[in-house]
Design brief:
By secondary structure, the chain is α/β, with parallel strands linked by helices. The protein has 8 helices and 9 strands. It is globular and about 55 Å long.
Length: 222
C-alpha cells in the first residue's frame, strides 16, 4: 500500500510526517517499509560514538540505551550529514520492553522504520533492525521489513537469563519463518543452540561483539 502524507499549511510538523513522505506502508498499522539492501557491514560503531568519529569505513548501529539516540528522532535532519559519511546504517533500535503498553511498542517500531525509510530516501544504505517483545509483537516486528534479504537483530542483554532467552528464541524463530532472510546481522552473542538451525538452513550469520564483549576480550587479551 502506498500513500503520500499531506502537509497542512501553517502547522508545525510535530509528528515528523516528512520522514514518511512517499513511503509505502505495511499492515493495518501502516508501518513504513524499508527496501532491501545488498551491501553488508564489516565493522560497526554505535551512534553515540559515530557522531564524533572520523572513521567512516563502518556502519552505524543503535544497539545502545535509547537516551543515546533519541535525538535522531527529535532532530533527524541535524544528523543526516553525519550518517551519510558512513558506509551504512542499521535502523534505530528503539526499545520494546514487554511491560511497556503495546501502543508504545507499536510507536517505537514505527519510529525505527520511519527513520530507516527516510535515510534510504536520502541515499543512505539501511539494513532494518528487527526487535520484538512478547508474542504480541512478533507480527509487528516483521512489518515494513523486506523478505529474503538482510535483517539485523540485537542479542546483547536478551539471552543471559533463561526466561529472556526463550522470548528471544521464539521471536527470532517467528521472524525467520516470516521473512526468510538470506543474512542475519547479530549484535551480541550467537549461541549455537539458537543460531545453528539457521546456519544449517543456509542463512548467513554475521556476528559483531557488543562493546561490553569487546572490552572483555581486550581485558583478557583474547
Amino acid at each position: 500500500m502506498s500513500k503520500v502524507n499531506s502537509t497542512r499549511s501553517g502547522c508545525k510538523d510535530v509528528f515528523r510526517a516528512f520522514l514518511v513522505r512517499d513511503a509505502q506502508f505495511d499492515t493495518e498499522l501502516e508501518i513504513p517499509c524499508i527496501a532491501p539492501e545488498p551491501s553488508l557491514p564489516e565493522r560497526m560503531i554505535p551512534f553515540s560514538k559515530a557522531v564524533s568519529s572520523k572513521d567512516y569505513q563502518q556502519w552505524v548501529h543503535f544497539y545502545e540505551d535509547d537516551v543515546e539516540f533519541e535525538r535522531i528522532w527529535n532532530n533527524p535532519e541535524r544528523y543526516l550529514p553525519i550518517l551519510k559519511r558512513f558506509q551504512g546504517v542499521i535502523s534505530p533500535d528503539f526499545s520494546l520492553y514487554r511491560d511497556m503498553p503495546l501502543v508504545m511498542q507499536q510507536w517505537n517500531t514505527y519510529r525505527g522504520r520511519a527513520i530507516g525509510h527516510w535515510l534510504q530516501a536520502n541515499g543512505v544504505p539501511v539494513i532494518p533492525n528487527v526487535r520484538w517483545g512478547d508474542e504480541r509483537t512478533y507480527e509487528l516486528c516483521c512489518a515494513g521489513v523486506p523478505r529474503r534479504s538482510t535483517i539485523a537483530v540485537g542479542s546483547h542483554g536478551c539471552i543471559k537469563l533463561v526466561r529472556e532467552r526463550e522470548f528471544f528464541k521464539r521471536g527470532l524463530d517467528y521472524a525467520v519463518k516470516a521473512l526468510r532472510p538470506q543474512t542475519i546481522i547479530v549484535y551480541g552473542t550467537v549461541p549455537d543452540a539458537i543460531f545453528d538451525e539457521y546456519r544449517n538452513a543456509g542463512i548467513r550469520i554475521i556476528q559483531f561483539d557488543s562493546d561490553d564483549m569487546a572490552a572483555h576480550r581486550k581485558a583478557v587479551g583474547a
